[in-house]
Predict the structure of ABC transporter ATP-binding protein.
Amino acid sequence: MNLSDAPVHEAALAIEAVHLGKAYRPNASPAARLRAALLGREIPGDSFWALRDVSLQVRKGESLGLIGNNGAGKSTLLQLLCGTVTPTTGTVRVDGRVAALLELGAGFNPDFSGRDNVLLNGPLLGLGRAQLLEQMDSIIEFSGIGHFIDQPVKTYSSGMFVRLAFALATSVEPDILVIDEALSVGDGGFARKSFDRILAMKERGTTILFCSHSLYQIEAFCDRVLWLHEGKAMAVGPSHAVVRDYTLFLAGGSPEVPAPGAPVAVPSAEESAAPLSAPVAAPPADPEAPAPVATPVTQPGTATPGHARIRRVVTSLDGVASTRLQMTPGQGTLRVSIEFDSDPGIPMPTAGMTFELANTMILSSVVSRTDKVMLERDAQGRGTATIEFGPLALRKGDYYIGAYLGNENAIHLYSEAARIALLSVTDPRPEPGLVDLPHTWRVEPGHVED
Ligand SMILES: Nc1ncnc2c1ncn2[C@@H]1O[C@H](COP(=O)(O)OP(=O)(O)OP(=O)(O)O)[C@@H](O)[C@H]1O
């Protein structure tokens, strides 16, 4: 595991953490916590280390991804870096103003108007009153709240609330942007707008810390990645290398000795995004039994401004459309047609599809951008992308087909139709395995070295 990194001159660092640790006393009563806080003493009882001895340097302008299982300590590290939690051990030095997209609008008072909440919460985000007054019009404009800005925020829809909180948090260019889970917030066109704002900040050299379960997004967006496991740093380094180690760990189960040649699970971008199209069928309790496929969804109407979405997915084998496809190895032509609607004003979206196993591992995926295919659409923004596979080298098993629609660089997910169809392959051969790999045999009498 690579934990070493070349030392960087202090002035070039946005963040430096040295032996950072955070211990909690999970069983301490509120009274014991209060007593300890008043007396400035340790809370008695066993410590639980949410984060242990993490040393880290983040260069200015760098995008660092945080990955790890649930409870690995990712949020704790972000909170320590933002200064909302105090460290138990070690130190953290942050150079510049931090904007955190962690709990958007958490400090908003529901009885106050949007305008008053901006003025009250701005200082907590490090923004001065004069700056806020100067930025007020652009905050209102970006959030799209309009005249509701002078209404109490309790009258806002959840979308309006998030839009205003995001517009506030990102109104003045931060030096460091901390993102927990979602690269875009809100829905429809605002998700695209918020993603564009984050991307523009990255391009202008803002340091970004991005924590996500979507390894696809992490790898596409971040320069380097820190992998945490049970509070400890397992590896830090180039995104592709750390994501590869982590996926090997997920597949093989051992953080120290990844199983050589173990299948690699690369969860796709949709994991962290809200489903916009078809409902996702839960994996079955019995891993042997295929889960039901999601019902295909046909969505009437057109995409909202700034947005794109999957309208319908049609899967067929040898021209026969079905969501339950049966084949034997090497036979049939599989077609997956993704019909989409888009705002014709946004850049051309990217389409993709996955073959997913029952245990949520992605066996294979196809992305139009990677294949250098530009989608096409009419003046209304409507288009269809069809992926055609000749005889598939799949062996016996059940493979869920999922379809995805992302933005032009395939990082921001507009719409997904996960598990939209089930492809069942029956194979009379007894050999185990998922795919047939191209190979040849050569046979001869005697031993090669003779
Ligand atoms: N205030 C707290 N008191 C006690 N334990 C806590 C507290 N905050 C976090 N923990 C514990 O610390 C551990 C790390 O939590 P953390 O939220 O940092 O993990 P995470 O990697 O962000 O997980 P997830 O991916 O599920 O969000 C967890 O076991 C969590 O239960």
Remarks:
- Residues 297-425 form a domain with the Coagulation Factor XIII; Chain A, domain 1 fold (CATH 2.70.50.60).
- The chain has eight helices and 18 strands.
- Residues 137 and 247 are 45 Å apart (CA to CA).
